[in-house]
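Query structure, 269 tokens:
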């Protein structure tokens, strides 16, 4: 059985500590992050994420305890919180009454200056995606379309609650490399036999449907507003664009990334 603790004050030390995890600096300092909801909780358990504690309102307490027992996680701390305390903790517009505190998975989500990959890994790269919802959607698509390693640089925080929400359980299952030197990483990957292609709208870019099969090729997408910097494009071996109807607006970054991933996925089927 669980030794459930109770939190009734919105100004308790635990509540004040959790509020710091809303900021990237607090997450980096503590090595922990938050996510909310029954579905993500169950996904995290099934993915064997390093859960530290669960904070549940009365109506969610039995569910949380049963799920922890099902997963053999009876060592995870569990707190019963009042509705008032929960409203202080949540940043959801429709609070779900179940908040999880988790250790950041250092092996699954690595951080380094340049990226190290294993031979034959299927890659995808996103640069400068500042909207956490878009980044979450890209992570979700990467898992759906068989990307072995997602490389990101200059993007929103992986553990931002909106990123976690957008990625759903895919964040708990996707190898993600966060690198600070994307140009050096792309050049190193090219030297190792990979073929990075920048997704750009230019006369020198090839239409996606005209590219031949090449298992070494992977795509690099940038933000909707700025796209990719010239230096990043220059570090790639080629350029690609997604054919669209004349007069169409450019695609949302997450949608474009999904189309590119799907095209590679279909070639492997």
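Result returned for the query:
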């Amino acid at each position: 059985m669980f030794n459930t603790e109770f939190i009734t004050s919105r100004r308790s030390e635990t509540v004040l500590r959790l509020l710091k995890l809303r900021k990237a600096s607090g997450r980096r300092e503590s090595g922990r992050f938050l996510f909310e909801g029954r579905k993500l909780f169950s996904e995290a358990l099934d993915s064997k994420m390093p859960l530290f504690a669960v904070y549940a309102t009365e109506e969610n307490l039995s569910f949380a305890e049963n799920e922890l027992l099902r997963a053999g996680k009876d060592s995870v701390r569990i707190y019963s919180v009042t509705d008032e305390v929960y409203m202080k903790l949540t940043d959801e517009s429709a609070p779900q009454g179940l908040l999880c505190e988790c250790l950041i998975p250092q092996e699954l989500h690595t951080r380094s200056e340049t990226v190290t990959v294993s031979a034959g890994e299927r890659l995808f790269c996103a640069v400068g995606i500042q909207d956490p919802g878009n980044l979450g959607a890209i992570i979700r698509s990467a898992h759906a379309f068989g990307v072995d390693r997602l490389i990101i640089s200059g993007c929103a925080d992986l553990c931002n609650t909106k990123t976690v929400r957008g990625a759903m359980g895919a964040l708990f299952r996707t190898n993600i490399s966060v690198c600070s030197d994307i140009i050096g990483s792309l050049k190193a990957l090219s030297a190792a036999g990979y073929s990075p292609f920048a997704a750009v709208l230019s006369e020198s870019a090839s239409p996606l449907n005209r590219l031949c099969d090449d298992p070494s090729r992977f795509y690099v997408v940038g933000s909707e507003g700025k796209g990719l910097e010239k230096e990043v494009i220059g570090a790639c071996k080629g350029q690609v664009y997604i054919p669209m109807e004349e007069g169409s607006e450019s695609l949302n970054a997450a949608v474009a990334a999904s189309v590119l991933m799907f095209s590679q996925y279909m070639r492997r089927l």
